[in-house]
Amino acid sequence: MKDVFARLGADFFSTILFIAIYLTTDNVLLATGVAIVGAIAQVIYSRVKGKELGYMTWASLGLVIVLGSATLLTHDPRFVLAKPAIGHFAIGVIMLKRGWMLRYTPSIVTQTVPEYVTFAGYAWAALCFLLAAGTIGVAMTGDMKLWTFYVTVVLVGAKIAAFAIQYIAFRSLVGSRLRAAAQRA
């Protein structure tokens, strides 16, 4: 679990840095510049340490540089605010692959209710698309306080709620199927 949080922190390092700098300074351009430098420094540090850089790290670096530069050049924060939407959309597309979630669920779930795991995978994709659309909508307002709330509370809260619903549903469905099988036997 610690490894998962470390990877998430690494994947969202520039966003976390952007939010932290913005909240302390109330300066979008400074926060954008620091996020760009932080993303570049993160890649350099990883390369010096000989760490393998995944696709998400490179994609994040590219997005931070391109969208951050657009923000700095135009003085329009909407470019950098759209970055999480692009990530959510890309992940949503990946989640449209049938059965992607089977490898992430316990074997008792995949053996007992595989059709529901496949459905849940599509539901996660839909959630990512919905969150991406919401992020774009909030980013287009240019309201930094609203965007910060959306990214830190709504995006995270929606995923926690979806995970809790999925956990309860899988637990209930597996229990129901196992009880039904025991009664037939």
Automatic annotation (TrEMBL):
One of its GO terms (cellular component) is plasma membrane. InterPro entries: YciB. Pfam families: IspA. Signal peptide: none annotated. Keywords: Cell membrane, Membrane, Transmembrane, Transmembrane helix. The chain crosses the membrane at residues 12-41, 53-73, 79-96, 116-141, 147-170. This is Intracellular septation protein. It comes from Bradyrhizobium icense.
